[in-house]
Specification:
Strands 1, 2, 4, 5 and 7 form a 5-stranded mixed β-sheet that branches. Strands 3-6-8-9 form a 4-stranded parallel β-sheet, with no helix packed on it. It is mainly β. It is elongated and about 105 Å long. It is built from 2 helices and 29 strands.
Length: 499
């Protein structure tokens, strides 16, 4: 009898044992805090939400649940551009790990838009070999607003199919350095916009024939940026370069030859507020299709010289509204007769104080009418405008009119008298225009106003000009009368000297 009881108890205990779920202790611990759904295919688990308190997440390509093995997929709501990470304020780091050749994937085959967006405490993302991004075509705003993000091994992602990188790291204000393979793509607008700690950006790649539509605002607001190195970046179809480097206040040198401007139409504000740039090499910039260059150098307060010569220009020229506004150190503009400026240009840019500016090179009518006239109403005055007019040697020497731009004030303040030869000098219709038709000696006399002409320094403001009883103006700081000699060499270059 006892033997039967013992046997019954043993069978009962065995029955209890076999009713205990077989998955006890067989679900991966890394899944703690995750909401998930096992898909009907029986091979895949979707991670749909995270409510755990683990600040450092490790996610694996294989998940064991109830003793069964599944491929790990992050659920992505394409209608809202959200993943379980989007907007999480607790996570500090995310690392992806491959297991038995399996990688973590997104449930959306083509998009990671906003995947890690608005995670203010996220400091690092480690993809390694653990995240499968093959086939992804859109990474727009993927990490936008991740203000603490410092480390992301972006170079480990397969982005060979991706065509949209717009605003991918916008406002990642703690990101300091970035190495990125840039493939054939359609859009890079605002890629690093607002990355105020980014010091170095390096990119390499791009398939031949890439036809990008936009890199507008790519580095806008990257106030710490010092080095940009883009190698083999194909931008042959790029049309807009608006505000690409706007606000890069630490940038001291920029190699624009890394970009192809042959199809460029809009350069608005491209280098705006680049305060540390003292010199800009525009030799690689092609203006032959550019219709708008407004604000291009606005706020480049360290820029001392601007060379616009040696280019092909679109017929009629681009708009140049406010192109050199707030450039107080810019005292020299180099041009040639091909430089064209659109008649729709309404202002070149204002300055708080009058700034002496030298124009070097021969002016086109377009430049004179649409740039010079606006320049002289912008808080600048011209100390020299040598257009190096050509000469024609026939039976008699015939000199082209030599344009010498002068401005003293809003009123006509200079009386010009030729000392020798026939009268061949005249004021233009505008107060700043004086034309010397022939070489010779000329006397310039101040007749009104409070500014006096000085050949060496241009027009210097005079504290006071007083008229004596006999009607003669006297000035302590500058003589009231200058005698100058205008000569030309065989190449047509004009030389002005004080007699």
């Amino acid at each position: 009898m006892r033997k039967k009881i013992k046997t019954g108890i043993l069978l009962f205990l065995l029955s209890l044992l076999f009713t205990i779920p077989a998955y006890a202790g067989e679900t991966d611990e890394w899944l703690n805090g995750w909401d998930y759904e096992i898909q009907s295919d029986g091979t895949t688990v979707y991670l749909t939400g995270y409510s755990g308190d683990n600040e450092e997440l490790d996610i694996y390509g294989k998940a064991v649940i109830d003793g069964n093995t599944y491929n790990t997929v992050i659920y992505y709501d394409s209608s809202k551009h959200q993943s379980p990470f989007t907007g999480n304020t607790n996570i500090w780091s995310i690392s992806f790990h491959p297991v038995d050749g399996r990688k973590v994937k997104s449930s959306h085959q083509y998009s990671l838009q906003g995947f890690f967006a608005s995670m203010p405490n996220l400091e690092s993302i480690t993809f390694g070999d653990g995240f499968d991004s093959a086939g992804i075509q859109d990474m727009q705003s993927m990490c936008v607003g991740d203000t603490a993000l410092k480390d992301i091994d972006f170079e480990n992602l397969d982005v060979s199919s991706c065509g949209v990188f717009s605003y991918i790291f916008q406002n990642c204000s703690s990101l300091e350095n970035m190495d990125i393979y840039i493939p054939y793509a359609y859009a890079y607008s605002g890629m690093f916009k607002g990355c105020s700690s980014l010091e170095t950006a390096r990119g390499q790649g791009a398939r031949d024939g890439g036809k990008f539509t936009s890199i507008n605002y790519m580095f806008e607001g990257c106030s710490a940026l010092k080095t940009v190195e883009l190698v083999d970046i194909k931008t042959g179809g790029e049309k807009e370069f608006k505000q690409v480097f706007k606000g890069c206040t630490s940038l001291t040198d920029i190699d624009l030859s890394m970009l192809d401007f042959s199809s460029a139409t809009d350069l608005t504000g491209m280098l705006q507020m680049c305060k540390s740039l003292t010199d800009i090499d525009l030799s690689s910039v092609d203006f032959s299709n550019v219709t708008d260059a407004s604000l291009m150098f606005t706020g480049c307060s360290g820029l001392t010289s601007l060379d616009l010569s040696g280019h092909s220009w679109i017929s009629g020229g681009p708009k140049m509204n406010q192109i050199i506004s707030s450039c107080p150190s810019l005292t020299e503009i180099i041009i040639d007769e091909n430089v064209q400026v659109s008649s729709s240009t309404y202002a070149i840019g204002g300055e708080d104080n009058y700034i002496k500016t030298k124009i070097i090179g021969r002016m086109s009518d377009s430049f004179r009418q649409n740039f010079m006239s606006k320049l002289l109403s912008s808080g600048r005055y011209i100390v020299a405008a040598d257009v190096k007019a050509s000469i024609q040697l026939t039976g008699d020497e015939i000199y082209d009119s030599w344009y010498y731009g002068l401005k003293l004030s809003h009123q006509r303040v200079v009386r010009v008298q030729q000392n020798h030869g026939s009268d061949s000098i005249e004021f233009g219709h505008e107060d700043y225009s004086i034309y010397f038709g022939e070489p010779g000696e000329y006397t310039l006399t101040l007749t009104q106003g409070n500014t006096a002409f000085d050949l060496n320094t241009g027009y210097d403001k005079v504290v006071a000009v007083n008229e004596s009883e006999d009607g003669v103006f006297k000035c302590e700081n500058n003589p009231l009368t200058k005698t100058i000699r205008a000569t030309r060499d065989d190449d047509g270059n004009v030389d002005i000297e004080e007699v």
